[in-house]
Amino acid sequence: MTACPRENSGELAVFEQIMAQYERRVFRIALRLLNNPQDAQDAAQEVFLKLYKKLASLDETQGYEPWLFRVTVNVCRDIGRRRRRSVGIAEVADLVAPHPGAEHDAQRAEQREIVRRGLSRLGEKERAALVLRDVEGLSTREVASILGSSENTVRSQICSARLKLREFTGRLMMRRRS
Description:
The protein starts with 8 loop residues before the first helix and ends with a helix. It folds into two domains: about 1-85, Orthogonal Bundle (Rna Polymerase Sigma Factor, Chain: A), CATH 1.10.1740.10; about 95-178, Winged helix-like DNA-binding domain superfamily/Winged helix DNA-binding domain (Arc Repressor Mutant, subunit A, Orthogonal Bundle), CATH 1.10.10. It is mostly helical. Residues about 1-5 and about 85-100 have low confidence and may be disordered. The relative contact order is 0.11. Helices cover about 70% and strands about 0% of the residues.
């Protein structure tokens, strides 16, 4: 039986270090996948509880990031299923470049809302692949590993997601202009 971090002060220090390094990123991914701050907080807590329980059995030479992101995606899927909510993206500030001024702030807020609505219409796997690849900046290989898919599948999901987003935003912008 492996020791829990609480039984070994060295492992507890490692746990605290990992949590300090990744808690914001895990929360941000969960928020983008669940579109609800409270659900994202619950997901992040669950991810770190799982880390706490599994830390002694994880291979630190492979790094903790892929494991954390894979668990985050899985926990978010479970929460989404349990609560029967459509999942989406809450904040997409990373996707829209900031511009100074009130007019630009209003445009930026409108763009964020359009992207949020578009992402909420994507399938769970497409959304996760797109968020991890385009928003979090992970490589296709890393995303494939996290999602348990092939790189070709991830590329296909991202391509499909981008096309759907482009079509959705195009239709919405056309309606607003008319």
